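Residues determine shape. Take a concrete instance:
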Amino acid sequence: MAKLNSYALSVALTKLQHGFITTKKGAKCLVIPIEENYLTEKDGAVYMQTDIVVMDVDVEKGTHGFQVQKLSTEAYKKLGADAAKEIKLPYLGNLMQFAKNNNDSVEATIIEPIEDDNDLQF
């Protein structure tokens, strides 16, 4: 039987480049430019390529890994290897493993975002 692990992941969408929070028609909105953030559109949906790195040990405060944005294959080919290496894509969040209680119920672990010294310029 396969061993199942359950993880929680929170994505800090405001870490994406040139994104901002605004109000439109009385609703608070997050605006994320598609091209500037290397997002892709397909069949009416917008996608972001990411990598999730899982570690087999608790590194810090329940952290078992992390998620970072990654260029899509198309964007990488379009830019070329040298230009792609120069792009600084954001660290999006920590991966936390759910803790099991004695009664086998699942208890979520709170995810704390890591502060980044790299401020976005608007």
User: Anything to note?
Assistant: Residues 7-107 form one domain. Residues 73-79 form the longest helix (7 residues). The chain has one domain: 7-107. The CA atoms of residues 63 and 96 lie 5 Å apart.
